[in-house]
Amino acid sequence: MKYALLIYGDDSAWVDLPDEERAALRAAEMPKWVALFEELRKADPSVSGSELSGRNTAKVVRVRDGERIVTDGPFAETKEIVGGVFRIELPDLDEAIRLAALIPAAHGSGAIEIRPVVQ
Cβ distance 82 to 8 under 8 Å? Predict the structure, then answer.
């Protein structure tokens, strides 16, 4: 079964940091992410994942009454946004849950949503 692991977090403190502070925080976190990728590749050598740009680069498209409406966004009622996604093939949901718990963003205020991919 293929799963999408959607990484949710609050980027509000992150986006306002100066570039050098952001780079230092990213460098400190990288060993955790490298270890995660090693574990994910053991489970599925063809795993793919992407970090998404910040919400300030996002556009939301809606069509209402035939009219295309494009807004900056997302601006939901919550501070949590999707910051990245993994696509991975795993034997079952239990393994997806195990691996989701290893994602550094799941610790603290973040969350990982697991969704089966329709095939």
Answer: yes
